[in-house]
Amino acid sequence: MYTVFSTFDVPPEKSEEVINIYKNRSRLVDQAEGFVDFLLLQREQRPGELTVQLIFDTKENYLKWARSSEFRRIHELEKNYPDQELAAIIPKVSKFKVVAR
């Protein structure tokens, strides 16, 4: 398995707005080959710190997703979000190969 974390900070007063965006996400990734799961994580001590976790069965299938037109479409929508403060956020991305379960 392969997992990708995208961590970003939003102003704490906007964290619920961002959480609701993800609760109503397009779910395009759910249709990607090898997709396993999506999680949105909120750090307890810092509610403005959010992490998206994507889990795929293989790195190759994740890379197919990351190079897909659906992936580009989702990220273009983010750039056009009306709240420019949120649209300008660049996440820190970390990628991991799962080596034990």
TrEMBL record:
Record carries keyword Oxidoreductase: yes
SUPFAM superfamilies for this protein: Dimeric alpha+beta barrel
Source organism, top-level taxon: Bacteria
Keyword check for Amino-acid biosynthesis: no
InterPro entries with a match to the protein in the record: ABM_dom (IPR007138), Dimeric_a/b-barrel (IPR011008), Heme-degrading_MO (IPR050404)
Sorted UniProt keywords: Monooxygenase, Oxidoreductase
Domain ABM intervals: 2-90
GO terms for MF: monooxygenase activity
Pfam family, one: ABM
Name of the protein in question: Heme-degrading monooxygenase HmoA
Protein species of origin: Edaphobacillus lindanitolerans
